């Protein structure tokens, strides 16, 4: 008889590990246990099933060759004994057994193991507010709930939806309701921006505007205080500021690791509730492994442990755990928290640390903000991306990379390249010289990721001085904050004139880029010039020139009009 391998959890890491072990040890007795009757599904695809982009929930449970990943599939095709609707109750580490219960008939049995994998995943957090268990309140946790949500919409029972939580799942579900179904949808987020601590306020504001432009209401800085009910059914959500009507409420306020089984067995669990593992994914018991949403992993930039509930990460961890359980040494070094999501016609994503997190971690962090075209500027399908590179000024190490763009592959390609570099402790110069495949339909000769590094280099070396977008917006909202600031618009006169006419030359003046060298003497010397162009590139060139002429009282607005237009502002003239 071969090695007895027992796996608790059958969604992502568990099935990956089970199949990998059978490929390495064909005679192994592999048993997989899950409390649900549906297993091995793409949970990240649930919003796209609800929206209708994925027509049948079985597609989330099918292989690329259209076989349904069910109990029969794992037993017949993979040779893995599969116990569904079976809950693991306790681990007896001394006897090396796990007590399980059949949820259909209540029968219990002890399953022996030589090696055990805990792939118990995570559970959605439920806000402790009145009405949280009402009919019509859902978390996005499994296919059963996804099917029920979609059925309610299809039967015409949902006209208004409220999504509590402005993270990735909340945004994806809001799109699912509003886009194809036309449901009146609102997002309520406790923090003062979407995707808090993941992307910057600048990029978050761009996303917020895009959601609003697509008829999704966004209410920031508001906590859901009560889910309002009538006869046990949802009718709305109450915050301190408003009452929102709702036929359905999605609670998307994060997930927590399922680690009770490990904790009760005496395994080491972190303060945050995640199972602690080493680089071989062994727990504090060398015969028990952990993988997926239930464990914490090292962050390869900050060095701290973090919780990374990503399906892609779980699959990789399942393979590494399987290798080691089969006696083949394999290492999982950690991750950098890469993610990307689609919101209507926009993509937004990040890898590594945000500026906010980097500063909190003690780095001497700064950010370069650029707004390049995602391919050659002359190519017909080019579109603007807004990119941020977060770096340490002292060491020049790149700490993070994030951006927004269209739903083409442009942003994804740069995030993926950055993620690989971050894992290798890359510095600004590595990004400056990074080789990216070039052809006009796909990129520009100077790739946007190189250009972001050039700006970071200029900032590090003191060649460029900038103001933040937050500071500029605050100034435009209240000019008394900086009465000596004057915006120098170096774009074409036709582009600058609407703003000059709106604000007057005491705030906004026009002097085109190609006339600065001849007319710089016309510029006031008693003002701080905020140099403004479309993307920031020309602004930097003008800064260098003005500095050489002794007019050093100037700052560049990074990203320029390209970013401001996408963020939206009530002071922008209608274009």
From TrEMBL:
Q: Please report the stretch or stretches of sequence annotated as the Rhodanese domain.
A: 481-573
Q: Name one GO molecular function term.
A: oxidoreductase activity
User: A Pfam family name for this chain?
Assistant: Rhodanese
Keywords on record: FAD, Flavoprotein, Oxidoreductase, Redox-active center
Matching entries from InterPro entries are given as:
FAD-bd_OxRdtase, FAD/NAD-binding_dom, Pyr_nucl-diS_OxRdtase_dimer, Rhodanese-like_dom
Cofactor requirement: FAD
Full protein name: Pyridine nucleotide-disulfide oxidoreductase
- Organism of origin is Desulfomarina profundi
Q: What is the lineage of its organism?
A: Bacteria, Pseudomonadati, Thermodesulfobacteriota, Desulfobulbia, Desulfobulbales
């Amino acid at each position: 008889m071969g090695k007895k391998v027992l796996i608790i959890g059958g969604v992502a890491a568990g099935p990956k590990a089970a199949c990998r072990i059978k490929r390495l040890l064909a005679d192994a007795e592999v048993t997989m246990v899950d409390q649900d009757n549906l297993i091995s599904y793409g949970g990240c695809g649930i919003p796209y099933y609800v929206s209708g982009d994925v027509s049948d929930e079985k597609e989330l449970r099918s292989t690329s060759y259209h076989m349904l990943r069910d109990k029969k599939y794992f037993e017949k095709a993979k040779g893995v004994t599969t116990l569904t609707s079976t809950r693991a109750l306790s681990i007896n580490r001394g006897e090396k057994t796990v007590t399980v219960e059949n949820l259909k008939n209540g029968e219990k049995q002890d399953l022996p193991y030589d090696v055990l994998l805990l792939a118990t995943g995570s559970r959605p957090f439920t806000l402790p507010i009145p009405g949280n268990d009402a009919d019509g309140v859902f978390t996005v946790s499994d296919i059963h709930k996804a099917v029920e949500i979609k059925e309610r919409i299809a039967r015409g029972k949902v006209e208004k939806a409220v999504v509590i939580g402005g993270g990735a799942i909340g945004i994806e579900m809001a799109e699912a309701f509003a886009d194809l179904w036309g449901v009146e949808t609102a997002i309520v987020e406790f923090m003062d921006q979407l995707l808090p601590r993941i992307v910057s306020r600048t990029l978050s504001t761009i996303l917020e505007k895009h959601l609003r432009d697509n008829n999704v209401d966004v209410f920031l800085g508001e906590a859901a205080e009560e889910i309002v009910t009538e006869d046990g059914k949802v009718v709305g959500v109450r915050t301190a500021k408003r009452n929102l009507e709702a036929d359905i409420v999605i609670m998307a306020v994060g997930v927590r690791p399922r680690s009770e089984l490990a904790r009760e067995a005496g395994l080491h669990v972190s303060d945050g509730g995640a199972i602690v593992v080493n680089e071989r994914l062994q727990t504090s018991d060398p015969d028990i492994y952990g993988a997926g949403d239930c464990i914490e992993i090292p962050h390869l930039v900050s060095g701290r442990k973090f919780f990374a509930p990503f399906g892609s990460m779980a699959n990789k961890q399942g393979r590494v755990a399987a290798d080691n359980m089969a006696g083949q040494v394999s290492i999982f070094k950690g991750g950098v928290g890469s993610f990307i999501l689609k919101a209507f016609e926009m993509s937004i994503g990040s890898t590594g640390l945000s500026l906010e997190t980097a500063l909190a971690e003690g780095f001497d962090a700064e950010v370069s903000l650029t707004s390049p075209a995602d391919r050659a500027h002359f190519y017909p399908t080019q579109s603007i991306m807004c990119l941020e590179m977060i770096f340490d000024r002292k060491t020049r190490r790149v700490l993070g990379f994030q951006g927004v763009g269209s739903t083409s592959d442009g942003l994804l390609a740069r995030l993926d390249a950055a993620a690989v570099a971050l894992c290798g402790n890359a510095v600004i110069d590595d990004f400056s010289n990074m080789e990216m495949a070039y052809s006009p339909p796909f990129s520009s000769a100077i790739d946007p990721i190189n250009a972001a590094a050039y700006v970071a280099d200029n900032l590090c070396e003191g060649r460029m001085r900038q103001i933040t977008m937050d500071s500029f917006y605050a100034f435009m909202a209240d000019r008394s904050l900086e009465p000596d600031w004057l915006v120098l618009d170096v774009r074409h006169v036709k582009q600058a004139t609407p703003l000059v006419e709106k604000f007057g030359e005491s705030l906004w003046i026009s002097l085109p880029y190609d006339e600065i060298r001849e007319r710089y003497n016309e510029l006031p010397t008693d003002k701080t010039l905020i140099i403004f162009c479309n993307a920031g590139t020309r602004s930097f060139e003008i800064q260098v020139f003005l500095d050489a002429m002794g007019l050093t009282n100037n700052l560049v607005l990074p990203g320029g009009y390209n970013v401001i237009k996408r963020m939206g502002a009530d002071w922008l003239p209608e274009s």
